[in-house]
Amino acid sequence: MKHVIAPVRVVVIAMVISVFGLMNAEAQRLKAGPQDLSFFSSVDDTDQPYSVYIPENFDESKSYPLVVFLHGAWSNHRLGMRRLFGVGNSQGYDFIKPGNVPFENDIEATRYWPEFRAVGYIAAAPLARGTAGYQGIPEQDVYDMIDDLKSRFRIDEDRIYLTGLSMGGGGTLWLGLTRPDIWAAIAPVCPAPPDGTLELAGNAGNLPVHLFIGDKDFLFKTAQDWKARLITSAKRLDYAEYPGVGHNSWEWAYKDAFIFEWFSQFKRDLFPEQVKFSTQWFKYHKAYWVKIDDLTPGEMATVDAKFTAANTVEVSTSGLGAFTLNLDGHSQFNSSRKVTVKVDGRSFSLKSADAISFTKSENGWANRKFTPGLTSKQPGAEGPLYEAVAGCHIYVYGTGGNPSKEELAARRAQAAAAADWSGMGGRIMVFPRVVSDREVRQSDYVTSNLILFGTRETNAIIDKFSDKLPIHLNTGADGYGLVYIFPMNRHYILVNSGLPWWTSPKAAPGQGGLAFMGSRIEVLKNFGDFILFKDSPDNPIIDGNFDKNWKLNEADAGSLSASGVISLQ
Fold it and tell me: Residues 181, 275: contact at Cβ < 8 Å?
């Protein structure tokens, strides 16, 4: 009997464990409706919140479309979700608005979830650090949130939609046009786009766009400029203009779940017949079946590739040195036959199972894959200065030169001031570390960009890499500031010697675009790869960019040497 009882007990125990596991899985299942989740951000080792809506009668085996909503300035993810579903007032005013309890302001409305209209979508709204715009770290948060959602739910990747209002409307345009092949359609509402976004309007060739604006909005002229561009460049442009309405057109744009109905018309096509794509950065180098392999960072590169017949592609380019066509999966491509590719008038007849690459030389285009040099600008090593703070980074002050207690405290205070991301919007939820040069860990070199304050005489990390760094501020260069970015160990080093980059209050960000953060970090967007200034950045001696091999051109090197305060490697 002993030999019989033991197996039975094992089976019973296994069944209990199995049932308990199923019960536990049921307990862990998220409820339907709006709620909060979070993802872990490697930028500053924090949990970042976002709001999510889960449809009624949610079926785990079914794939769902996803709507991503980007909130406006002085708002958050919870208010954003309410806006998306047409529930909420505008800009925190205390008078009655549709869907709000009388006299309820935004702070009070954030504390609970009202009843939402049922839709067959998953919807998500990130905090994205608060009022920080949607470039750099907040931009990465959006994509990290989407990855987190994909790990939790079955998301139909051909039905991912993007919308947002004001600052978030500008973010909708920026994210939608820098990476157009992620989205099935976008809907910017009264958008306040960052500088440089309008130049990318041509990237909407395969994106349906719905633009909303009130004719009394202070951004009305901005919206008209976008309408003029998108009417010719977008795959489809729908436009809604509300007479007499100011900067609260979202109350009409999102009313009665309209945006979900509009999005339902569209699915992403990863293999459109034609791809027009422009970019200035390796960071945004791909759209659909076209990838730009070589460009000059900061200068616009454009490619226009089109199937004119089966296995026949015409390509025109501007400002780029190499590209790849990833044709496998396209209905017009048959890998068993040769494909004819005409590049800027020159024809090639080739056979390939998938990707076809071209590189430009003095003799013109050649069917050759581009390989960047070890020291050349490339993805992850292209600048400009702002890229050093666009991901995981730490602020490092120096302890060298036998400083007094007061001087050491002043050095730390300078680094801490740079690490304070709070600006005019306040409560920007970015929490980088501030450490001394003695406290930098080996793992920091692997994971983080280093923002280094001081000189090789005062900061041990600058001294450690001094033979590799191209520029140094001389001892005794009082009243000067030097700031530059340089790639190191697959990450960036940003060196700030002398006066800090935010010295002048006149160094306001946003030349032509709208900056919301208003912090010292935002000031970096004004510069290229380097700047040497006297007294303030408003008085630059020289500013510019390193060449494609991270070298100074002859004229810039001469100007830096002539300053009398710089040593060049």
Answer: no
